Write a sequence for this structure.
């Protein structure tokens, strides 16, 4: 029996069902309470716009609820773990399982399998529902909950690196091969030393050649000599794609994993820093997996004699371990955004650390 992952199919289904129902019951309670409080705080701003009413309030709930679900699902799984295991311990069911020959890992196995399923659902939910709703809610709140204007496609103040040179476009209009640039400044550098500055009122992509840009009415200033001259129409940036200029500010929360990956690739091609976005991309995968840790971190509430009077203390310890993980996860992600941690480490280090902590606590105390 010690070598079987699920010695009893009936026991596995029983524990998995208890854990699943309690976790989602806690999640439903949290969402109802938090959504109500959030709506009370934001309803004044929504109704402040003339013409908004009940329909806009329900629209806000529709956009905001997925964010609340995604944020508090790991907390719900943690609390569901503690409630399930504490109840089983209180009713001496854990003692009966251990008397039947089940190890601590075998007792937790059904919960971990269910948690893996929850993590998979959470990833799909975050990627397909939460990201679009976040982008829509941000766009709506930016116009004070009024009608969202159509995107004109005009961008401003874009920087692109071309080898050792830096290019700034004050205004960018159009997309693809029809991209038009205005107020262009090119900083020509050699060994990080500024040699000359080229300015032009307009430029367009060379659609016939399929690459490079045509700069019109250009003026060149020689930094070394301190002289300037008109150079007319010139070409520059044969390897610069139009989308490198049209890239807007990237909001990782409002993009799916695939969209964020493509945005990071474009930003890298444009020579822009991407460490913070790479950390957010990795966290889109490691974040949902936090649900898998919760049965392990909350398992301390399952073992020990309930009649010893320490069940409450064990539950508090399990809750403390779970909440400490969330603190460490947010801290690591913040350090990644600041550049102190590499992106992969910022996203995965807390998960791996607390996986080892949970296993150590379980083995040292129960196995």
């Amino acid at each position: 029996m010690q070598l079987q992952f699920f010695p009893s199919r009936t026991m596995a289904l029983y524990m998995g069902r208890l854990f699943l129902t309690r976790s989602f019951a806690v999640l439903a309670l949290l969402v109802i309470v938090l959504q109500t409080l959030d709506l009370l705080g934001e309803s004044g701003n929504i109704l402040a716009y003339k013409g908004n009413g009940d329909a806009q309030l329900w629209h806000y709930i529709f956009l905001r609820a997925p964010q609340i679900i995604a944020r508090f699902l790991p907390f719900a799984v943690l609390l569901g773990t503690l409630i399930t295991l504490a109840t089983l311990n209180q009713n001496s069911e854990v003692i009966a399982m251990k008397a039947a020959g089940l190890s601590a890992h075998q007792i937790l196995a059904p919960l971990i399998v269910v948690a893996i399923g929850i993590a998979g659902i959470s990833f799909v939910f975050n990627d397909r529902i939460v990201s679009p709703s976040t982008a829509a809610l941000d766009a709506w709140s930016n116009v004070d909950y009024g009608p969202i204007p159509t995107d004109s496609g005009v961008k401003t103040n874009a920087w692109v690196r071309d080898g050792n040179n830096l290019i700034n476009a004050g205004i960018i209009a159009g997309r693809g091969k029809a991209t038009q640039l205005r107020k262009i400044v090119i900083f020509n550098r050699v060994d990080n030393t500024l040699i000359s500055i080229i300015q032009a009122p307009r430029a367009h992509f060379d659609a016939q050649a399929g690459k490079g840009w045509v700069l019109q009415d250009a003026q060149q200033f020689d930094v070394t000599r301190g002289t300037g001259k008109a150079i007319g129409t010139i070409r520059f940036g044969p390897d610069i794609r139009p989308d490198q200029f049209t890239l807007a500010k990237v909001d990782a929360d409002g993009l799916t994993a695939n969209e964020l990956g493509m945005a990071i690739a474009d930003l890298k091609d444009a020579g822009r820093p991407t460490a913070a976005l790479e950390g957010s991309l990795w966290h889109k995968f490691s974040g949902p997996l936090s649900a898998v840790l919760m049965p392990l971190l909350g398992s301390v509430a399952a073992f020990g004699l309930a009649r010893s009077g320490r069940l409450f203390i064990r539950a508090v310890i399990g809750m403390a371990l779970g909440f400490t993980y969330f603190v460490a996860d947010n801290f690591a992600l913040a350090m990644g955004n600041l550049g102190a941690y590499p992106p992969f480490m910022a996203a995965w280090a807390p998960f791996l650390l607390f996986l080892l902590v949970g296993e150590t606590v379980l083995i040292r105390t129960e196995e």
Q: What stands out?
A: The CA atoms of residues 290 and 351 lie 7 Å apart. The first strand starts at residue 155 and ends at 162. The chain has a mean pLDDT of 86.
